[in-house]
Design brief:
single chain, 355 residues, alpha/beta, 14 helices, 13 strands, 15% strand, binds ligand NPW, binds adenosine-5'-diphosphate
Length: 355
């Protein structure tokens, strides 16, 4: 830990007093939690390119995003991913969205998402990090996207970030089982729900628990056998609650899905399957505008694609996103900031964290 910071564990939530301006102290329903990681610790994670870097060694980000209804989400996530340092950003989107995404930024490599073959992707190679972000601009009403998602959860080996409409498609017994199988195989997954998406994920986990219980009562063995026994009593109780506190919800979802969970909101909680959690409270209500979550997914995805561990990628990505929002609001007012501005102000956020 860097100088000026102190940390201790209280109920699994990492409490830190950082040297940066902490502004707010969040009082969770069950815990008092202070600010997240300090600038010095975050700055050490910044993926500056090596002198001999090339676009492939810097990190390959595959973004499966942008249904015909929401091409903008793919544009925002992809531009944010490039700005956050990915060396090669490839967008797999709906055929009807391709022209929009190509026209938005010529540096993006744009393909039809029928060409997305996650199980056939080359195995990750040392020195050539890669990651996938799936779900920004997924139309959850388009159930045909379920197979695209499930195939990716099952077949994609490298780190996987699931966001937006894909979270609704994951929120059921099959999604939970496949996510847990990924975790058991040592494959990293990161979920980035807002409050509504987190509630859906909790419902999906409850559905899986009920299915597992019913199978046990019938005496049948199934893929979810023993699920209830592998979840902590606190986790099960949280999933059963109508409106749990966000810190405990993030932890219960991380445990259930075997994934790092960044539960977004005015304060963001980043929880890991091992029960640890940290808080990111640098944000501003200027961020409460459509598309800012897509930008965040692209930023974190790019950090994963540059080899950061999911917890570090989430902590750094959320902090950079929040700092970009604050710098943008200082220049443009908290009324005028839009999602695109976060991409423009990301360099200032990087400088703020390094200074
Ligand atoms: N430019 C583009 O192309 C854009 C495309 N986008 C894409 O659109 C897709 C759908 O995503 P979405 O977030 O708009 O809708 P959805 O998942 O139905 O969630 C909304 C429901 O959840 C609830 N809710 C509860 N807490 C909440 C919270 N903290 N924050 C927000 N909502 C919260 C809320 O309940 P309410 O507050 O109304 O009671 C409401 O009923 C997705 O793929 C995304 O990537 C967007 O990113 C925008 C820019
Ligand atoms: N009042 C607020 N204060 C601070 N940050 C906020 C606030 N409201 C939203 N945010 C941040 O803005 C982003 C919104 O993400 P999300 O709801 O997924 O948006 P979208 O789906 O439109 O892209 C998250 O990073 C969230 O933490």
């Amino acid at each position: 830990m860097s100088g000026g910071e102190s940390a201790n564990d209280t109920g699994g939530v990492k409490e830190m007093e950082a040297t940066h301006d902490t502004r707010t102290t969040e009082k969770g329903h069950d815990l008092d939690v202070a600010a997240g990681r300090g600038n010095a610790e975050l700055a050490r994670l910044l993926p500056h390119p090596a002198a001999d870097a090339n676009k492939y060694t810097r990190g390959h980000l595959s973004l499966v995003a942008g249904s015909a209804a929401y091409p903008g989400a793919a544009c925002l996530a992809a531009a944010a991913g490039e700005r956050a340092g990915a060396g090669y950003t490839e967008v797999f989107c709906a055929g009807k969205s391709m022209i929009t995404v190509r026209g938005w930024r010529p540096s993006l490599v744009v393909r039809d998402w029928r060409a997305w073959k996650p199980a056939k992707a080359p195995a990750p190679r040392p020195g050539h990090p890669t990651a996938c972000v799936i779900g920004c601009g997924f139309d959850a009403a388009e159930t045909s996207l379920t197979s695209l998602l499930m195939e990716t959860v099952r077949g994609w080996e490298a780190p996987l970030l699931i966001d937006g409409g894909a979270l609704a498609l994951l929120a059921n017994a099959t999604g939970l089982r496949l996510a847990r199988e990924r975790a058991a195989a040592g494959r990293a997954t990161l979920l980035t729900p807002h409050g509504g998406e987190a509630a859906r994920l909790a419902r999906g986990a409850r559905e899986a628990l009920e299915e597992a219980k019913a199978a046990a009562a019938r005496g049948t063995r199934g893929p979810l056998e023993g699920l209830a026994d592998t979840l902590s009593a606190a986790g099960r109780a949280t999933l059963a609650e109508a409106s749990p506190a966000p810190a405990t919800l993030a932890r219960a979802l991380a445990e259930a899905y075997g994934a790092v969970v960044a539960l977004k909101g005015p304060v963001t909680f980043i929880a890991s399957p091992d029960g640890t959690a940290e808080i990111m409270n640098r944000g501003t209500s200027a961020l409460a505008k459509a598309g800012t979550g897509d930008v965040l997914a692209g930023m974190i995805g790019a950090l994963l694609a540059q080899g950061l561990d999911p917890r570090d990628a989430a902590a750094l990505g959320c902090a950079l996103h929040a700092e970009a929002g604050r710098t943008a609001a200082a220049a443009l007012t908290d009324i005028c900031v839009a999602a695109e501005d976060l991409i423009t102000y990301l360099p200032d956020a990087i400088r703020a964290i390094e200074s």
